[in-house]
Amino acid sequence: MLNHNSNNPSGKLKFPTAIDLHKLLVAMVKPNNYWYYEVSKCAPQYALRYLSDAWKRCFSKVSGQPKFKKKGRDDSFPAECYANTLDGSISIGFNHIKLPRIGWIKTYEILPDNVTPKSVTISRKADRWFISFKVETIPQITEKSVDVIGVDLGVKTLATLSTGEVFEAAKSYRKLEAKLSRLQYLNRHKVVYSSNWKKAQLRIAQVHSQIANIRKDTLHKLTTYLAKNHSQIVIEDLNVSGMMAEPKLAKAVADMGFYEFRRQLEYKCKLYGSELIVVDRWFPSSKTCSNCGTVKKSLFLSERVFNCEHCNFSCARDLNAALNLAMAGSLLRNANAFRAGVALRQFCEAKANVRDSLWTG
Questions:
Q1: 121-160 exposure pattern, b = at least 16 Cβ within 10 A, e = fewer
Q2: Using one digit for the tens of pLDDT, what is the confidence trace for 223-258?
Q3: pLDDT score, position 302
Q4: Catalytic residue list contains 356
Q5: Active-site annotation holds for 152
Q6: Cβ density class 306-342: b for 16+ within 10 Å, e for less
Q7: Is the pLDDT of residue 91 over 70?
Q8: Which of 88, 170, 288, 361 has the lowest tally of Cβ within 10 angstroms?
């Protein structure tokens, strides 16, 4: 269809929607493949819905063309809800859940009580299966200890706050790199898709999952602490892809998880009533003196202590950058408040002029 539309601009065919594809599935595929009825109806329906959304993103040039999902990689299936009510074939107990076509399954953790999930998704990572719920929550406004705080991310330490607090990184990949390398080395001569190869691949996937879980746990603790205790959090718009292109920094940057840090911070700030301010990536936070404002022409990455030749101020490089980010966030907030005040004053003046003209007329 894409080739036909590109070759015939005047006679383009309408791209089928998810409903059209589902009608074709029921009419043509299911009568000849009875195993379709052995699985939940939610899986094929929402697979077609996700396919339709992927093509919409492709046509709007948000992303590229969708690719086929491969079995054994990011395995998951939805048990979605209809009209804000959970599918009748799904029931939730204390630590049990009844899935369609599968039956009752015991969970290791206690399931949420008195909560109506909007959707349920089952996924597998390595040798473990997980169930995730999508629920509607009300933002939790917490008391903030500090109004504005700057956060400087780094590869030596995960984060340095403008208050002087330093959060060390887990560096899970560096700690488990030797174990992962050993497992991959032992798997080099195994026949692909053989039983021993599958066992080795499972052990490698378990180590990868352990590395990712340690990293995510560290980031969750840090982002939750920031969002709960600070009204405004100022971070820098880092060029993570550019940093990953540097061979000497790529491994350390990937081990930190800068993108995951920002992703978690964005939704947690909305959840706890905080504001996230992202400063432009070209802002010289490391080269600027937080005491007098003098900007250095150059600052090597090996210089871990910032020394100002103008005012003889000296402090840790990361702390100096965090202080500059906090001041930049305060300036941006004041500038936005000033612009809002000017716009309000202009609106009031225009409204008064209209009222006077009507009165005069």
A1: bbeebbeeeebebeeeeeeeeeebeeebbbbbbbbeebbb
A2: 999 999 998 999 998 888 888 898 888 999 999 999
A3: 82
A4: no
A5: yes
A6: bebeeeeeebbbbbbbbbbbbbbbbebbeeeeeeeee
A7: no
A8: 361
Distance CA 39, CA 304 (A): 58
Q: Which residue is catalytic, options 136, 143, 318, 356?
A: 318
The three-state secondary structure class of 316 is strand
Interaxial angle between packed helices 195-229 and 172-186, expressed in degrees from 0 to 180 and rounded to the nearest 10:
170
Q: Report d(CA 319, CA 306) in Å as an integer.
A: 9
Among the listed ranges 76-80, 155-159, 181-185, 225-229, which one has the minimum average pLDDT value? 76-80
Catalytic choice (38, 113, 136, 152): 152
CA–CA separation, 173 and 187 (whole Å): 19
Give yes or no for residue 328 having a pLDDT over 50.
yes
Q: Are strands 230-236 and 275-279 parallel, antiparallel or unpaired?
A: parallel
Phi-psi region of 316 (alpha: psi -120 to 50; beta: other; left: phi over 0): beta
Q: Which of 143, 177, 236, 260 is an active site residue? A: 236
Residue 52 CB: number of other CB atoms within 10 A? 19
Residue written as tokens 């052995």?
38
Is pLDDT at 173 greater than 50 in this prediction?
yes
